[in-house]
Amino acid sequence: DAKTTQPPSMDCAEGRAANLPCNHSTISGNEYVYWYRQIHSQGPQYIIHGLKNNETNEMASLIITEDRKSSTLILPHATLRDTAVYYCIVSQPPGSGNKLVFGAGTILRVKS
Amino acid sequence: NAGVTQTPKFQVLKTGQSMTLQCAQDMNHNSMYWYRQDPGMGLRLIYYSASEGTTDKGEVPNGYNVSRLNKREFSLRLESAAPSQTSVYFCASSDRVLSYEQYFGPGTRLTVT
């Protein structure tokens, strides 16, 4: 599985968009980009995934560059409850057992 | 639906003791996973079961054994606990075919003294 690089921490003002970058320059053609978050030592929570097209759901948007070497997770209107560690993961699709390799992630602090 | 449940929530062991961490899911998922998370670090995969009847090693399997008891349950056993196994243990499940999402349990906080 390809390795990812994320900034260790970021701050965001409440109500503003939070843009979390991720570099995955060694991603291979069939690998997906997944985003999870972990709030205060709870179990991680799935946010979104994508292959090459931009994706949006009720939680966030995922923007993947055309060369697929990097991506950005966007929380459009961050709230205090979005303070968490955000993990960008590159992995095989579910048919391969869907193993996830978690790095250190980005600590997002949303401030009022 | 309870989702993924784990027992116990907390456990303190002495070095050399054994114990089994229990995990169950009620979502009819095929795949189940055990991870550990050390302080300030991301999760690391210990073992996984892609489907009932199969288990495979993950990134850090040494010192652990697993049993996929049935489709619902996946247990993790520490035969002889060591202080290096002090960690938070998370169980997760996913539907291998239909879902890209892993569902995680609340975790078991294990301290080995």
Helix coverage percent of chain B: under 10%
Number of strands of chain A: 9
The largest β sheet of chain B comes out as: 7 strands, mixed
Q: Could you tell me the mean pLDDT of chain A?
A: 92
Strand content of chain B: over 45%
What's the shape of chain B? globular
End-to-end distance of chain A, in Å? 38 Å
Structure annotation, total helices of chain A = 0
Considering residues with a beta carbon less than 8 A from a beta carbon on another chain, report the largest interface and each chain's count.
Answer: A-B, 23 and 32 residues
- Could you report the average pLDDT of chain B, rounded to the nearest whole number? 92
List the strand order in the largest sheet of chain A. Answer: 1-9-8-3-4
Task: Report on this structure.
The complex is a heterodimer of chains A (112) and B (113). Chain A is built from no helices and nine strands. With 112 residues, chain A is mainly β. The relative contact order of chain A is 0.34. In chain B, strands 2, 4, 5, 6, 9, 10 and 11 form a seven-stranded mixed β-sheet that branches. A four-stranded antiparallel β-sheet of chain B has the order 1-3-8-7, with no helix packed on it. In chain B, 0% of the residues lie in helices and 50% in strands. Chain B has strands spanning 4-7, 10-13, 19-25, 31-37, 43-49, 56-57, 64-68, 74-78, 87-94, 103-104, 108-112. Chain B is mainly beta. Chain B contains no helices and eleven strands. Chain A binds chain B through residues 32, 34, 36, 41-46, 49, 87, 93-95, 97-105, and chain B through 4, 31, 33, 35, 40-45, 48, 50, 56, 58-59, 88, 90, 92, 94-107.
